[in-house]
Batch of 2 targets.
Target 1
Amino acid sequence: MTATRFAKASTLVALAVGWLVAAWLLTRTTVPGDLHAPHVDAGAIFPAGVLHRTAHYDGFLRWLWVAATLATLGALVLFVYLGPRIARAWELGRVATGVMVGAVTTLGVWAVSLPFGALQLWWGRRYGLERQGYVAWALAQWPALLGQVVGLTIALTVLLLLAGRFGRRWWLVAAPLFAAVGAVLVLVLPWAETLGTRPPHDTPVAARIRQLARDEGVGGTPVRIEDVHGETTAANAMATGIGPSARVFIWDTFLDGRYSNREIEVVAAHEFGHIAHHHIWKGLAWSLLLTVPGFWLVEQATRRRGGLERPEVVPFALLVLAVIGLAITPLGNVVSRRYESEADWSALRTTHDPAAAASVFRKFARYDLVQPNPPLWSYIWIDDHPTVVQRIAMARAYAARRH
């Protein structure tokens, strides 16, 4: 082996080891390694009617996800074939032509995915979870499509310019650049998302939530109530933002009387746990870890067709990215479930209320029709949260640990 080859091999080994070490560090959580979660039998907790209803509702959505995924990949394969024809239809420069090819591909994929979204709305309305009308839903798709096209236009412009400037090494520049842009968006978007929301009313539960934030070391984190009751009966909450933009959004469907104050406190504490344990920051780190090899794979795949700098190759690059995204989905779900478990554990340690936590999880099955124990394939490919029975098991394990 020549000195040059040895140096390259050593560099690759060092990078691989560094990647694995970083991934290992990012997956570590504060959930005790010796925590013994007891076995929880869904049949002993939920009536047979609830188990049947959740299995029927969730089962349809799972197979709808499979069908939508296959349809999307099929549409991208079609546009890979049509890419050269679409590129020849535009008498523009290399970058502008590539952007137009990407825009046409995006519109085509969006059109293919639209019926699956309509089916999902129909299914949710049938079970009483969705309240949005079909016309309102259709009109609401256009802003998302516009944002997708604009975002892809900017991204493709940057990628095509980098590919033309740096050739085979464009991915070395693009990966950290896109990760940095992602961090800026995570910082800025929460302020825009706050528009149209409101702070909680000045009540004892609001005061208790503020105290929980202080107890978790994130005192001063804004909490906003998002009005969604006109669109859905499902209840949800989320933590978003980094640094000064970090905040917690709670859907007003948690406040319609179905959930007790203690249960709402558990939900808020869970979201504060995401912020306290820097899960959003860790998500940005994961985006960098995955974008670098992902873009490298795109470069290797597109090089056989002339490289990403060629406009007609854009649909193929989008197909490769979609396949990569599908392939790493199980890893993303594993990481997400670990972070969600840590947020659950943080909420238990802060509220000291495993009974309320277990009650919340049971109500997710009853009201949101979350199947308590989904099929393994769904758990691997779709589910980014622990199952309901796993979350109840953690609450019971915490209760046993206290005694």
Target 2
Amino acid sequence: MALKKWATIVHRHQYKVSLLALVITFSGVTLLLDAPKGANLDWLGVALIVLGGLLITWGVWPRNEPPVVTARSLANRLIRWLTWDSALLPFFPLMGVAAILADLGYNTFLSATPAIQSEDAIVLLAGVALIGYNFVPAKFGRERDFVFLFFVCLNMILVVPLLAARAFYADFERSVDVYSWVALAPQASTVLSLLGVTNSVHMVPGSTAPGLTFTPQKLGVPVTVVITAACSGIYSFGIFASAFVGFVLTEVERLSKRIWVFLILGFLASYVANILRMVVIVLIGFYTDSAQTELQNMLIAHSYGGWIIFIGWVTAFWGVLFRFLPPGKQPVRLGEFGVETNSEKNSLCRACGGALTPAVPARRCVCGAILHLACFRGGFCPGCGHPQSTEAVPRQG
């Protein structure tokens, strides 16, 4: 009884539970893909992802209720466009297997380090998402589309640029340090100078990444911090940006001015938070490190402080987003024979909006939507992408 009572309480506060589950899952994914240097925290990352998933399953997903037809979101329309009007959906499992084999083959035959790195984990998880896409029940279509778009964006931000750079330089071990040179090191240096910390950004022999040199007050000897791609925070930025885009697209039906403002502010604030992360790390070393500490304070801040700062900022931003994001349309719940129980438009095709009459053949999809037979595009439901149903819709009166 106590468990049922807590489940009811959790279900009443879906937005708060969603925010908590999102932050916990985000923290777990970040630990897996961008773990603090020298820390073996993979087990904690897996535990956080499992905990976040349980919270979503327990408090957010529908319980014993009629099937739900969600409003056609931007994510749904974008996926239909990317899959040539759902024509590629049946091939998703094959694409997923191909992505996994391609990554393993790349590691085996081209990479000098066959161990699974962050980019490999991103590709492998995307492959698993593709394999399982068509097996997710239609009533969880919004969550399914979010996961799909999350991994698409994550690969476009973190994997594709790396592969393009390696192909351009014909170097399969090359790292992408352009972000550090262009969008991080100069900006962090400027902020530090404004705060009274004398520093310089320069090339480092034997490295393609920029170096930031400063002199800690208690040390008196210049110290150089090499800002490589792994240390730049680009992985945390990519994870946040992918989750942010996926969430917004699955929650709205059109890109209004408010949504554009949220998107712009989201990326801008994430970028500023990343610069702040680097500035805080250097400031800790500048004010606290001495000959006795041997830069350990700065290293600890680099390994843990930056991650905590970014997670804290993400929590605050998502909290604001959940509060002010325009609510979507009320989902339509279907009763017996797929007749809508809370809508006056229970005699309209969910695809074209035309009338459903005995004279026009119609079918009910497994997701609950009723459509004209001709509105099943390419034999697939335009809403959820499932194959055309063979069950005719009973007519009343």
